[in-house]
Structure to design on (145 residues):
């Protein structure tokens, strides 16, 4: 019984250590695609990078810029999620034309401050607090709460 408890304690300790988040300020740890994306689309410097791991393997990078922008990249450097301050808009390069057009027509006074890319489509957050869902082609599906 003691042997079983010891083995369980070792396994639990291993997983708690491997699940620990790592942080860095070095942009060079990012995949090339993410570094290129940051250089081409954002003016602010990197404040810090949180490296998320699942089972010891990098699953994503959470990048925080000095202006408060947060960008999540997958392990290959593809963006997954972008969150801006309420007074700033997500760069146009990330917003499909159909979504930009819908927001411009239906929420004239608002700008897109957040966008999340999913397999099923996009979740969009506006500066006025409204959240919307779009399919992968950019067609409006519904308002979200």
């Amino acid at each position: 019984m003691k042997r079983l408890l010891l083995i369980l304690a070792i396994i639990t300790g291993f997983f708690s250590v491997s699940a620990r988040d790592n942080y860095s300020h070095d942009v060079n740890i990012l995949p090339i695609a993410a570094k290129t994306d940051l250089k081409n689309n954002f003016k602010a410097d990197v404040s810090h990078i949180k490296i998320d791991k699942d089972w010891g393997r990098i699953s994503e990078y959470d990048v925080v810029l000095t202006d408060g922008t947060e960008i999540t990249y997958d392990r290959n450097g593809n963006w997954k999620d972008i969150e801006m301050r309420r007074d700033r808009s997500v760069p146009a390069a990330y917003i499909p034309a159909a979504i930009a057009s819908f927001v411009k027509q239906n929420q004239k006074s608002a700008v897109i401050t957040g966008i999340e890319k999913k397999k099923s489509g996009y979740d969009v957050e506006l500066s006025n607090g409204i959240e919307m869902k779009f399919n992968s082609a950019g067609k409006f599906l519904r308002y979200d709460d």
